[in-house]
Amino acid sequence: MNFLRIIVIITSLWIVSGCVPQVKLTFQCDDNVNEDMLLPVDIILVSQSEEKAILQLGPDAWFESEYRNNLTKEQLIKLALKGKEKKEIMVNVPQKESAAIIFADYTQITDQNLQQIIICHHDWRKYKQGYIRVGEHGLQIMKKW
Question: Strands 39-46 and 76-81: what pairing?
Fold first, then answer.
């Protein structure tokens, strides 16, 4: 009887874990990015209520904030990109209402709009992939969600 319970539990966990929707994000870097230094990029998965607080911080303050240090691995994906690099990652889409914020910490760019991309919660569920250009002068969505 205990053996049957274990099989049911394992099967349930397997089914639940396999049902997590994913989005493939492709980051394509230009030849020259961030003055040839590694560019820190964070993908932040948060609820819509948390989104406002994070956007108020902005990319420049984000990378030094306590807020960043308190997020879980499921909420924060950290990347370091360099020129000419192409990086593809699979991101688990949270079940709750959420948004994705992508912040980049460019050394010489201070315009917040050039250092961030916001992906609304409803867009996550529609599409399976996104293409982001990491340029010398900022981030840009290359293919609409």
Answer: antiparallel
Please report the pLDDT score of residue 8 as a whole number.
Answer: 45
Domain assignment present for 4: no
Query: Of all helices (H) and strands (E), which one includes residue 48?
Result: helix 48-62
Is residue 61 situated within a structural domain? yes
As a residue count, the chain comes to 145
pTM, 2 dp? 0.83
The number of distinct structural domains making up the chain is 1
Contacts (Cβ under 8 Å, ≥6 apart) of 142: 28, 131, 132, 133
- Reported as a pLDDT band with limits 50, 70 and 90, residue 114 is very high
The reported pLDDT for the residue numbered 93 is 79
9 is a domain residue = no
Task: Tell me the chain's radius of gyration from C-alpha atoms.
Answer: 18
Measured distance CA(131)–CA(145) in Å, rounded:
9
Which CATH number characterizes residue 78's domain? 2.60.40.4150
Q: Which residue bears the tokens 């904030």?
A: 65
**Is residue 1 assigned to a domain?**
no
- What are the pLDDT digits (tens) for 64-74? 999 999 999 98
